[in-house]
Amino acid sequence: MELIRESYSSQIRPVLHGLAGAVSAAHPLAVAAGQELLQSGGSAADAAIAAQAVLCVVAPDACGLGGDMFALVHSIGGDPVAINASGAAPMALSHAAADGPNSITVPGIVDGWGRLSDRWGKASLARCLEPAIRIARGGVPVTGALAATVDAQRQRLLRGGAAPWSLLSLSPGQLFIQNALADLLETIGREGARSFYEGEAAASIGQTVLGLGGALSPADFAAHRTEIRAPILTRMGDVTVATQPPMAQGVLLSMALSALDGLGPLPEGLGDHVGVELTEAAFAFRARVGEGEKLLSENLSVDFTRAGLRGGPRAYLHTAGVAVGDRAGLTISSLVSVFDDFGSCVYVPACGVTLNNRAGGFTDGPNAAAPGKRPVHTLAPALLMRGADSIGLATPGADGQVQTLLQVTAAILRDGVDLAQAIAKPRWRSENGALLVEESHPGAARLKTLGHRVRPLPDGDTRFGAVVCAGRVGDIPIAVSDWRRHTWSGVA
Fold this sequence. Notes:
There is one protein chain. The protein has helices at residues 28-39, 44-58, 109-120, 125-138, 144-159, 179-191, 195-198, 200-211, 218-223, 250-263, 271-283, 400-413, 419-424, 444-449; strands at 16-17, 21-25, 68-74, 81-85, 140-141, 175-176, 227-229, 232-236, 239-243, 320-326, 331-337, 347-348, 353-354, 382-386, 389-394, 428-431, 434-438, 454-457, 468-473, 476-481, 488-491. By secondary structure, the protein is of the alpha+beta class. The strands form 5 sheets. It has a 7-stranded antiparallel beta sheet with strand order 1-20-19-15-14-9-8. A 7-stranded antiparallel beta sheet has the order 7-4-3-11-10-2-21, covered by helices on one side. A 3-stranded mixed beta sheet has the order 16-17-18. A hairpin with a 2-residue loop joins strand 16 (428-431) and strand 17 (434-438). Helix 11 packs across helix 12 (400-413). The longest helix has 16 residues, at 144-159. It is globular and about 60 Å long. The model has no long low-confidence stretch (mean pLDDT 94).
């Protein structure tokens, strides 16, 4: 792919070139963990697990062992694979809530680690979890942002039984030590991923949730299995784009990209307008995400002359990304999440985790809540593949994920923008009927004249995502990260 130009002399973060591998993640400590595994001979899968586990330690508001993981995996000579490491609603579910004990689905991330490790790993699962265990026991400084999130969610956390959690009493700069979480990670490393679903952790979680009036039980954990299947594939020129199949809403990105490719050359200056219109048209099919590839035959209408103001995308803002590529040609693009801040805010003292609130993703129609059913997920990583070259892209931002990746992918594949600049350039986000636009965006005035309800926001506002990107291009592992949030990259 003709994607890489030198940019070290500019404010754009450069594409890094590795030897053993390259990793991009939502936090520098997660990147360091990935580098550690790559340097010790581990694969991209080992590095991804290590980085994800560290994110669970340093960003408990965004992700954790009580949450889920989605990943796309591609190896040279093989077909891309999609991993759905999310869980189903309890079999005894009577109603789904957006918060609290009845908002919890079975956490899938740990079983996802097991499947990644078994199929693509070189190191043991225990070795992959070592960096996270060290950080959990040694402590990580509380950031101002994490402390502010705790304050904002304090009442939810207290309702969820988190009063004993030390995080609630810490100020910015103080060390957050998580011995219970470290113990749990050590058990998983020693006894395997299934121990989380068939041992003391499942019993403790079930007891906590049932005690608060929820329905999640150890039997739901024992029945859980990760889904591994083919991703959704679309073509843009000579590049194949892979997205997450149901029950993630990656197909909405595929729909928008396919429609964009079918439009051919666009009138001058209308690229952003068309992207907004395709986004809003695609999100009209969110409840039907379970239909997967069938939705690619749906027509997405665009009026080049004015904004349709159809709305659609919502405002959730969570999740953390990890992308890794190694010298053997294995590329992984992944996202981990508990959905809202601290998920359901239900805290399990024996495990040191809060549990997701993914049942809040149920809506109506085909996405209505039911026992044993998975809701539509916002998590939507992507892979760009051409021949032996493969690049993983992912971003947080819930409904903003599809929009951010649409802008980055279109810049690369339609506009010929190099990878670093495509990730760095100003963005827009359609949200609840408004069009949020970074202040430096050169197309903001044009978008306003077309009738969009433009709302300028400071450059780097969290609503515009934070792209992680890594893979292999021309036999060289590469990584580049967004300048937004705490996103970082490293090589080994």
